[in-house]
Amino acid sequence: MSFFGFGQSVEVEILLNDAESRKRAEHKTEDGKKEKYFLFYDGETVSGKVSLALKNPNKRLEHQGIKIEFIGQIELYYDRGNHHEFVSLVKDLARPGEITQSQAFDFEFTHVEKPYESYTGQNVKLRYHLKDVIVGKIYFLLVRIKIKHMEIDIIKRETTGTGPNVYHENDTIAKYEIMDGAPVRGESIPIRLFLAGYELTPTMRDINKKFSVRYYLNLVLIDEEERRYFKQQEVVLWRKGDIVRKSMSHQAAIASQRFEGTTSLGDVRTPSQLSDNNCRQ
């Protein structure tokens, strides 16, 4: 795995703590076949271990931090590549440093809200999965073009309307020149962007089916003949307070049900999937 397609590869595996004892349910895949996936209910904790193994054990891997994400997303088949996330939780596993040998990190997402059933249909798929993230550096392992300089942009894309009346408006929030001159083989460029000084909002997807706001990192390489090479990566922004309020609201609802001695089908109605295939990249 590498950021922007550069860097040394590392094999990542996610193992659930109760994988042997947890129930499984059959679920239809995109090709119509049925496979068994781990069964989770709304409010259940998801925990396990992330194992990292370098493909070349004689070399080291520098990184700017290791994270794991719990994602709930909707994918429309006619709009592949644009995943609509309704759950997004992040855990930091390691601070910036380097990996010289295989390592494992424990993780736990406590009382995760999984409001919808996992679903695979003709035109849409809803799923839950774990996503590992290693934020690192840009490495130049092989330079075949004469690069003059490199810059990285933060872009806000506002989308309004529906159907044929969709309008996209791009706004460049910030632009940084992160390299001046031709790189040499093996050189690495660290990236650290501080967002506090900019007027940013959380990522918003399909708000009342009327508009969306998304943010992207845009990497631009410019060669000596002024030709430009682009690589774009979406970044998801959220407010910490929103997650805290949701968690407190969920816990308060559970406490209220227990106090009143009532039972709700909402506690057991939403099984979701977490498969080995979904947990690996």
Automatic annotation (TrEMBL):
UniProtKB keywords: Protein transport, Transport
Highest rank taxon of the organism: Eukaryota
GO cellular component: cytosol; glutamatergic synapse; late endosome; phagocytic vesicle; postsynaptic early endosome; postsynaptic recycling endosome; retromer complex
Keyword hit for Protein transport: yes
Pfam family name, one: Vps26
GO biological process, one term: retrograde transport, endosome to Golgi
Family statement: Belongs to the VPS26 family.
Protein name (database record): VPS26 retromer complex component B
Organism per entry: Mandrillus leucophaeus (Drill)
Organism placement in taxonomy: Eukaryota, Metazoa, Chordata, Craniata, Vertebrata
